Amino acid sequence: MTIREPTPDDLPALVAIINTDVVKPYTPETFAERTQDMRQQSGVFSQVVLDDGHRLAGTALLTSAPLTTEDLDLLLIVAPDACERGYGSALLTHICDTARALGARRLETSVRDTRPAVRDWAERRGFAFQLHRFESTLDLTAFDDTAHADLDGRLAHVGVTLQDMGTLGRDEANWTRLYSFFADRDQETPDKQGMPRLTVEQTQHMLRMNPAVQPEWIVLATRGEDWLGMSVVAGHPRGAYNYFTGVAPDARGLGLARALKVEAIRRARAAGFTDMWTHNLSTNAPMLAVNRRLGFTSLPGLWVMRRTVA
C-alpha cells in the first residue's frame, strides 16, 4: 500500500473513485478543470491517492478558503469494493500529518445523510456532527420567468434596484465596499456562527480574483446609496453554482432573497448554463422556502462534521 500524489495517468481511475460520492458524475476532463479551479482558489490544496499495489483504491483531498491554513476541508473516499481494509484510516492518518505540518486547527468533512455507516466511521475517528446541509438543483431550461413577474413591481414599490459589479465595479471604491459587505452577510449565515470573519484579502480572492466568478454574476440589491443584499453565481463544470445569497437583517421581509436569486438565475441562463445548484442548512427555513418556490429540487443532504487536528 502506497499513499502518494496523483499522476496524470491516474486520472481515469481517480475520477471513477470520486464519482462514487457525487451527485453528477465528472468526466476526466471536467474533473481536471475543477481541480485546476480549486488549486487557484484555495489557500491549501493537497491531494493524495492510495495505491494498493494493483490499482487506486482511495483518495483524500485537503482544501481551504483563500489565504488560510487553520481550517481545512477534507474529502476522503475509498472505492466501495475496497472498504474494510484500513485504507480510509491510512488516508486519514496521512491527511492529519499534513494538516499538522501546515499548522491547521480543524478539519471539516461532509458525509451524505444516506450513508450512516460512513458517519459512524468518522465519529469513531474524532469527527463530531455540526450541521445538516442540503443540496438543491434547478433545471434552468425549465425555469418559468413569468411565475415571478410580480418582482419588478414589488422592488419598485420599495425603491430597490438590482445592479451588478460589472457596472458598480467601475468605481474601485465599490469593490472595497463589496469585500466588507460580503464578509458581513457571510458572517450572518447559520453555518458561519462561531467561525472567524472573512478578511478583506479572503473576500477579494473569493469574489474578484476567482476565475469562476464574473463581475456580472455578482448581483446587488440597492436602495439609493444603501446596499441591502447580494447573490453570487460561480461557474462550475457541473453547472452554475449559486455560491451565496444574503440580505442585510434590516432589509429582510421585502422579498429580496427571491428577487436576487431570480436575477442570478437569469444571469446564469444568459451565460449558457443549463443547470444551477446550491447548498443551504436544514435550519435555514426561509432560504429553503425560497428555493422551493423557485423550483429547486432537494437532493439527499450532507452531515457536516468537524474534528480538531491533534
Automatic annotation (TrEMBL):
InterPro entries: Acyl_CoA_acyltransferase, Bact_Acetyltransf, GNAT_dom. It is an enzyme of class 2 (transferase). It comes from the Bacteria. Keywords: Acyltransferase, Transferase. Residues 1-150, 168-310 form the N-acetyltransferase domain. GO terms for molecular function: acyltransferase activity. The keyword Zinc-finger does not apply. Its EC number is 2.3.-.-. PROSITE patterns: GNAT. This is GNAT family N-acetyltransferase.
